[in-house]
Write a structure and sequence with these properties.
- There is one protein chain.
- The protein is an all-alpha fold.
- It has one domain.
- The protein contains 15 helices and two strands.
- The protein has a two-stranded antiparallel ribbon with strand order 1-2.
- The relative contact order is 0.12.
Length: 409
């Protein structure tokens, strides 16, 4: 059954590759399926769980391919941004505020890279400082599209790529690289420099794998249970252990979320606290059962984006969550096309990252993400208000409106 699914997914991936725009969608999910088929024994219901997870993905892929011309036209219309002087001022000011919160984060929580075992420990208000400091990836589009100073561009890009390393946050590092790659390719014509794109991809793999190896060390090593399921082991094939240690821990990071999802599906386990805790940022301690789930290796307890939903309401709720996420992504695309603002671009990047890497648990369904969207809508409203006031003031003084409106491609 899984072999049939694998053929169907490879066929869908090939169809996506016929259009360059779908290359970025096909690579993460296709690589994940390839690694699962190559390094795992998917018996005892695990293969069935994998199919249940990927079936909505295949359906969504088919829908995208049917309407891909329209979607591409929407993205093409959004490939130019309209920036006002107020937009630049608001974005740059907010970016410096993020840098300030980053300094406060390091001051209160410490430099985690010096003691990676404490990367998830916070002190006092440090948890709330972290909510702002992890927006460091926002500095990427701001630097490339808003800043006119080369020094500021270099500082913001360097900060956005280095800060996640300092706090040992691989998910934020991946998001920073994604934002850089997208903005560089779409708005800076980076797609013409294919050699540089390959180099950037290699740097991402090395940085991501190296940070994980440094953070976890020997704890990423796991033994195989062969074709059987056993606590403390994973059903890994012998070929897995032929890989270098750096690649082994990347394979585990990419594949264990799907394995955990499949296992929970096969045993029909439920734990509503897992999902409710994600939506309750100030009352997580009230849910005693979080984050328990019957995974094989407890230190690999991360699931896919829809892992909590599966334990909350089963396959139906998990599929509904997937559809809701797709709808949010489509709205972000339409909002970017209609608004053509950098604030809409940031929201789009956040949703696009979640869609592409949903198998690696980027956590779309958390309170923080909805607060993030509201914040950038508020910043856009504030910027538009400043622009309107400037125009009104110019009219009152009977002088030209010097709003410095430029277009960025």
């Amino acid at each position: 059954m899984f072999f049939l699914f694998y053929l169907l997914w490879c066929n869908a991936a090939v169809l996506m590759l016929l259009d360059r725009a779908y290359l970025y969608l096909a690579i993460p999910a296709g690589v994940q399926a390839l690694l699962l088929a190559s390094f795992y024994y998917l018996g005892f219901g695990l293969g069935e769980g994998v199919i249940v997870y990927y079936l909505p993905v295949l359906i969504a892929s088919a829908v995208l391919m049917l309407g891909h011309r329209h979607l591409l036209s929407v993205l093409a219309g959004a490939s130019s941004l309209s920036l006002t002087a107020a937009d630049r001022w608001v974005c740059l000011s907010f970016s410096w505020l993020i840098v300030l919160f980053g300094a406060l984060d390091l001051l209160v929580n410490g430099v985690k890279i010096l003691n990676p075992g404490t990367y998830a420990e916070f002190h006092g208000y440090g948890r709330y400082f972290r909510h702002f400091s992890i927006m460091c990836w926002v500095l990427i589009p701001v630097s490339l599209l808003c800043s006119r100073s080369r020094a500021v561009k270099l500082f913001f890009i360097t900060y956005a790529l280095i800060f996640p390393v300092i706090i040992v946050d691989r998910n934020r590092l991946l998001l920073s690289f994604f934002a850089f790659f997208f903005c560089y390719v779409i708005y800076c014509n980076g797609w013409k420099r294919r050699n540089l794109n390959v180099i950037v991809l290699l740097v991402v793999v090395l940085a991501f794998g190296g940070l994980g190896a440094y953070r976890s060390g020997a704890s990423f090593e796991v033994e195989t249970s062969g074709k059987f399921l056993a606590d403390g082991f994973l059903p890994l094939r012998d070929s897995f252990f032929l890989l270098p240690s750096l690649l082994r821990q990347i394979v585990l990071y990419v594949t264990t979320p799907i394995v955990n999802y499949s296992l929970v599906y096969s045993v029909d386990f439920s734990n509503a606290d897992f999902f409710l805790s994600q939506m309750s940022p100030f009352g997580r301690e009230e849910y005693d059962a979080y984050p328990y789930s019957p995974v094989l290796v407890q230190r690999f307890n991360v699931g896919t984006e829809f892992f909590p939903q599966l334990m909350y309401g089963g396959v139906f709720f998990s599929s509904f969550s997937f559809v809701f996420m797709i709808v949010c992504f489509v709205f972000s695309v339409l909002f970017l096309r209609s608004s053509k603002s950098i604030f809409a671009l940031v929201i789009f990047l956040k949703f696009a990252h979640t869609i592409i890497f949903m198998g690696f648990a980027p956590q779309f369904f958390i309170f923080y993400n909805f607060a993030f969207v509201f914040l950038f809508l508020l910043l856009q409203f504030f910027s538009r208000t400043l622009t309107a006031l400037a125009r009104l003031n110019a009219i009152n003084r009977s002088i030209p409106i010097g709003c410095d409106r430029t277009r960025v491609r």
